[in-house]
Amino acid sequence: MGELTGKVALVTGGSRGIGAAIAKRLADAGAAVALTYVQGEEQARGVAKEIEAAGGRAAVIQADLTEPNAAVDAVEQTVRELGGIDILVNNAGFLAYGALADVTADDLDRALAVDVRSVFLAAQAAARHMGDGGRVISIGSCFNGRVPGANFVVQAMAKTALVGLTKGLARELGPRGITATIVDPGPIDTDMNPADGEAGDFQRDLTALGRFGEADDIAAAVAFLAGPGGRYVTGTALAVDGGYTA
After folding, report:
1. Which one, of 216, 239, 138, lies nearest residue 179 by Cα?
2. Contact, 153 vs 100, CB < 8 A?
3. I need a surface site. Which of 20, 121, 157, 194 has the fewest CB within 10 A?
4. Distances (CA, A) of 164 to 111, 139, 198
5. Tens-digit pLDDT string for the chain (246 aa)
């Protein structure tokens, strides 16, 4: 019996990279897991098949989180298909990179829709179904503590908004025994940010450990916060960044 046996989790953006690692880690701990995707249906179903092949339960949900109703619909579909929701992991994000002068209103709206609005709406919807022991975990960014240079203004703004949102959720939901936390990754080796990419050396040099982390490093932190070990952790962020913000 795993620590999360009997629990149901929803992981947004769970078809690849960090999201896929989180979905599989929670399933390994015993949770039934729903995961959303935008376009990568084949990848999402591949993750679900891995979970099911290991004896777990999984559901795959198409959700474009730039749409106002998508986050709520994903929560409700999770409840219908898996019987409830105990753990919400807001992993989906929009990478907004560019010089201030080049940022368009559409870029700004998309970043805030995915990184902030969908998190709020998903948490609002999930809280209606959660009981004592519920978890709302959002994937932030090391930019919450340090912005290393130009071109990250939208990304830093959107991810930093999660701090206030999470503190507010912690106060709102704490009396019901529901926690709200953030995991702030540093440089993580994924297809979106490969360690051998052109910015790899720059990012490595910003960390105390001098290397990239792996998606499983973030998944392990999420699993800790989702499990019994995280029951007294709320309203705060856990940096998993190799000392990026040291």
Report:
1. 138
2. yes
3. 194
4. 17, 14, 33
5. 899 999 999 999 999 999 999 999 999 999 999 999 999 899 999 999 999 999 999 999 999 999 999 999 999 999 999 999 999 999 999 887 889 999 999 999 999 999 999 999 999 999 999 999 999 999 999 988 788 888 989 999 999 999 999 999 999 999 999 999 999 999 999 988 999 998 899 999 999 999 999 999 999 999 999 999 999 999 999 999 999 999
